[in-house]
Design brief:
Number of helices: 17
Distance between the termini: 86 Å
Radius of gyration: 27 Å
Strand content: 15-25%
Shape: globular
Largest sheet: 8 strands, mixed
Number of domains: 3
Helix content: 25-40%
Number of strands: 20
CATH topology of the largest domain: Aminopeptidase
């Protein structure tokens, strides 16, 4: 019928217009409703307010105007704009369009809130729709993009938030949050869907904290790394899901055991003085096994984006764990195995756990009382040891520090538990993202001001370097205290500076380096990251149908060189066939 929005019809909200629907449209001059998607209303209102002055003096309007503060930012724009649509409905063409109902699966009609924070489980299609709708609503700060596809062909969809979405800005740190790496651990998936809507909503409302965060940080949210596994788990439903149903991807691979084992290589190199133990290359033999397309998508994503900080959201317990996840003694299932950045990782874990009400609860009723003595944080290998984890790979292959957050005891919680989960995790998620601004950042340039790409930034006493991005910018997460920082690159003399990090810093200190070229004939060799054989094609640049590098399965023998399979045997450490390798 005329005056009826199409979306309302599907919700049962349209009715045949009557004479009472006719109205004289007047300008909408209500400050609380100034951001409504329409600009005219009519009087009397549905609540019998006969003028703008009478409406503004009503208790309903006063409540609406303070809703933002009463609810502390929770769902307020949706509730407020819905209230506006009821108190001062849209008037167009001499007719009033009243919001009788709205189906959450339909596109919201103009004049009503464009998003609702529905505390419900989202199917793959619903998740995609919510993310794209959120990005469209906040197009000036948000964008969706795909990093690849799952084995069954579902897009791995990311939504990013930034002052300039779609591009890296100099000295703006990049953060990623990943959920649903195990398909049946769904709380993280929903938390990131809610977080995306919350960031958009709060930015539009002018929240100083959220605007400051988005304007100074590029935030990437991947709600579901394993959408195929989720479909298996969701088919059983919340509360009925088995401990492992849907955990793996469609290839039956555990994605958090599918990354290259660089931790073993780290332990081997750590005993060699002067050897690089960061930015380790992916060993060639890794590609001879099954590499999930989801795993490969994450690795390519890390290569194209200079991430500084990351969190992987899981379920099944209530704890924050940090690297290393693989024990320094391969036969020890539980053994404290710290990284060189142990202090910083503990700060990151504490940042999440200390503001999580249940993680700080001293009651033994939460997940059987696990991790009470450790304050709900633990070194991963001290909990249980495993290889091929995503957090270890992030730390040893790139500049990125990643922690693992177990969000709760139930892997697939019922819908009625989702609101409470959001309340418990909203502040920890925001606090964790803000931690990316701890430490130092800056530029490494030559004497002409030209950026020096892949320069090394070292900290004395911490055997883990970071490298500069293509634009010459870098970020180094550091705990409070005094540090000696060294910048160096091949062909340049190194520069040393002393920095002091205060305990309560809210933004990274800027420390720039200007490198001077070495005189001719005095250039020293600067050891770089360990690389695979230069004759082999980069596996993340070109790949075959199973994820292996093109040509890696049958490398022709070079004249006088070793056959293609030789590096496999040399990688077996203590199980090497020495009788073969001596020839």
């Amino acid at each position: 019928w005329p005056g009826c929005e199409p979306a309302w019809g599907s919700a049962g909200g349209c009715h045949r217009p009557s004479a009472s629907d006719s109205a004289t449209c007047v300008d909408l001059q209500l400050q609380t409703c100034s951001d409504a998607a329409y600009n005219q209303t009519a009087f009397p209102s549905p609540l019998e307010h006969r003028s703008r002055e009478a409406l503004e003096a009503s208790s309903e309007y006063v409540l609406l105007s303070v809703l933002h503060h009463l609810l502390e930012g929770q769902c307020n724009p949706d509730l407020r704009l819905l209230g506006c649509a009821v108190l001062a409905p849209r008037c167009e063409g001499g007719r009033v369009r009243r919001p009788w109902g709205l189906d959450a699966e339909e596109a919201p009609p103009s004049g009503l809130p464009p998003t609702f924070l529905h505390f419900t489980h989202h199917s793959y299609a619903q998740m995609v729709r919510v993310l794209k709708r959120t990005a469209a609503r906040c197009a000036h700060i948000a964008k969706t993009y795909s990093i690849g596809r799952s084995f069954d062909g579902r897009e791995l969809l990311v939504i990013e938030f930034s002052g300039r979405p779609g591009q890296h800005e100099l000295m703006e740190p990049e953060v990623k949050l990943i959920g649903n790496i195990h398909g049946n651990e769904v709380a993280g998936r929903e938390m990131l869907i809610y977080l995306a809507q919350y960031l958009c909503t709060e930015y539009l409302l002018g929240s100083p904290r959220i605007q400051r965060l988005i304007n100074s940080t590029r935030i990437h949210l991947l709600p579901s790394m394993n959408p195929d596994g989720y479909e298996v788990a969701a088919a059983e439903g919340a509360g009925y899901n088995g401990w492992t149903s849907g955990r793996q991807n469609a290839q039956n691979l555990d994605l958090n055991r599918n990354f290259p084992d660089l931790t073993s290589e780290f332990y081997r190199l750590a005993s060699s003085r002067g050897a690089r133990t960061d930015h380790l290359a992916i060993p060639q033999h890794y590609w001879w096994g099954k590499v999930a397309p989801e795993t490969k998508a994450i690795m390519k994503w890390m290569r194209t984006t200079p991430f500084v900080l990351s969190a992987s959201l899981h379920g099944g317990d209530l704890v924050v764990s940090y690297p290393f996840d693989f024990s320094q003694h391969p036969h020890e299932e539980k053994m404290f195995s710290p990284t060189p950045d142990e202090k910083m990782f503990k700060l990151l874990a504490r940042a999440y756990a200390d503001v999580h009400p249940m993680m700080m609860d001293r009651s033994e009723n939460r997940c059987g009382g696990n991790f009470l003595k450790t304050g709900s944080i633990i070194n991963g290998a001290d909990w249980y040891s495993f290889t091929g984890g995503m957090s270890d790979f992030n730390y040893l292959h790139s500049n990125c520090f990643e922690i693992t957050v177990e969000l709760g005891c139930v892997k697939f919680p019922p819908e009625e538990a989702l609101y409470t989960l959001w309340q418990h995790n909203k502040e920890p998620l925001l606090t964790f993202v803000e931690m990316v601004h701890r430490g130092i950042k800056g530029m490494v340039v030559d004497k002409f001001g030209k950026p020096v790409r892949n320069a090394r930034v070292s900290v004395k006493g911490i055997r883990h370097d970071v490298t500069t991005a293509p634009g010459g910018d870098y970020w180094r997460l550091l705990p409070p205290g005094s540090h000696i920082v060294i910048a160096q690159a091949p062909g340049y003399s190194r520069v040393i500076k002393k920095v002091t990090i205060p305990a309560r810093m809210k933004r990274a200190g800027r420390v720039d380096f200007i490198l001077q070229p070495l005189p001719a004939g005095t250039q020293k060799f600067l050891q770089g990251p360990r690389r695979s054989s230069p004759s082999l094609q980069d596996p993340l640049e070109g790949a075959g149908p199973s994820g292996e590098p093109l040509g890696a399965r049958r490398q022709p023998e070079a004249s006088g060189g070793k056959p293609w399979w030789w590096s496999y045997f040399t990688s077996l450490s203590q199980h090497k066939p020495r009788w073969l390798l001596k020839y």
